[in-house]
Amino acid sequence: MTIQITGYSISPFCLVLFHVLKELGLSYEFTQPGSFEEIKSPEYLATKHPFGKIPSLSDDGFQIYETRAIARYLVNKYQGKKNSTVLIPSDVQKAALVEQFISVEISYYTQPLGKLVGQLVFAKRRGNEPDLKIVNEAREELEKVLDVYEKLLEGKDYLTGEFSLADLLHIPFTNYAIKAGESDLWNKRPNVARWWKNISERESWKNVLNEYTLA
């Protein structure tokens, strides 16, 4: 049985899956498409991802795409098999809170953060100048979101009180933003800064950073 991921190592979405796999103590194989055109090919669309995106995962013949769906699948199937790390608790109410903060991450946090990183990191990587209007608007929106996070994290080290998949999903995009010079957004908020320190210093995340070259 082999877990196989297809994607690009610089992708925040692939980085999420590498981190999940390492937290769960799972080995895997990673394949990068030869070109961006390849992920639009009829074969890729038919066998990996019908929208021509990454990542996708194959597990003993089972195929699944979309990052958060893959992450939940891995947790549901493998959590507790290799180690004691818990990313989604078995308690119904605790699990519901994890899902709540995953929804918060998708809806409010990663929306502006993705725009910011898209301009400051990936536009530059493509040889383009960042669109400063998009950068400033994304930064302003993220300021408001992080103000709410500052309140949510009062007296807590993690979003639900214990490290979970909800925290993990925030890490790759945030890491890119901080590397791009935006660390003050997190550092000037004590609760947010404490939370970021806690989640970014996970050994499994450090292992991801050591293994892969980011953009």
From TrEMBL:
GO terms for biological process: glutathione metabolic process; response to toxic substance. GO terms for molecular function: glutathione binding; glutathione transferase activity. Keywords: Transferase. Signal peptide: none annotated. It comes from the Eukaryota. Its EC number is 2.5.1.18. InterPro entries: Glutathione-S-Trfase_C-like (IPR010987), Glutathione-S-Trfase_C_sf (IPR036282), Glutathione_S-Trfase (IPR040079), Glutathione_S-Trfase_N (IPR004045), GST_C (IPR004046), Thioredoxin-like_sf (IPR036249). GO terms for cellular component: cytoplasm. Residues 91-215 form the GST C-terminal domain. It catalyses: RX + glutathione = an S-substituted glutathione + a halide anion + H(+). Residues 1-82 form the GST N-terminal domain. Belongs to the GST superfamily. Phi family. This is glutathione transferase.
